[in-house]
Amino acid sequence: MGNNELPRDLIEAMRSAKCVFVFTGAGASKESGLPTFREIDGEWTRHDPMTFATFEGFISNPVKVWNLYRLRQRQIASAQPNPAHTTIAEMEQYYPEFLLCTQNVDDLHERAGSRKIVKLHGDAWQMRCLDCGKIFDTRDFDLPDEFTEETLPKCPKCGGLCRPNIVWFGEYVPHEAMAAALDMVSRCDLMLIVGTSGEVSGGYGFAQQARANGATVVEINPSEGVLTRYAHFWVPEPAGLALPRIWKSVTDRCRAQ
Fold this sequence. Notes:
The chain is of the alpha/beta class. The protein has eleven helices and nine strands. The protein folds into two domains: 1-32 and 81-121 and 173-257, TPP-binding domain (Rossmann fold), CATH 3.40.50.1220; 35-78 and 122-166, SIR2/SIRT2 'Small Domain' (2-Layer Sandwich), CATH 3.30.1600. α1 (8-16) crosses α11, α7 (83-94) runs parallel beside α11 (239-256) and α9 (175-187) packs parallel to α10.
């Protein structure tokens, strides 16, 4: 599909949709300069995921793990939402029912204006107490840029060691987030796949279920992934370029009618 070749059926499906489910992944944040984890130049080529993304790795060396996540927080803080983020936030205002489900742990969607959002893999700005389970925003505390054994973040309620509130390998996605996503997948008439290959848990079966339930599935991703086979339309471009162009066509058609 060339840069100017947007099928009318795609634009009409987006214009007429009433219940929309948007599923985003690392590719959306990559366009804001945040490195991905799984690509050839991703984080897991430089950092062993069994050390930095498992509970066992954290318990073995919490200082090492926390310092990587503090670095990630600084990267997130310096990044800015890109046009894909802002377009998705605009879409939220248009559709009667809307849910953004992201695998990303940054806050770029929120900073772009998205409010109807669930995070499957946690939040890089949060920490969770290993003892009492309470969740806190790390930005509410005066934490050092680099931790030592003595300065590791502790729970202000019970004094227990806190871990990043991220879903690591071998852990379950939060029940409430998954339940909200599955509910919308079962009801949506349009699903957008934005910047994710679907390699993580096969995209949780969202695309298959949405299509089986009669929804139009649209993928916006430069490269073909495991979810492309379920898409009615695949736009092989970066989302920051394609989404604003597609959305302009949708809104232009709305104004013309």
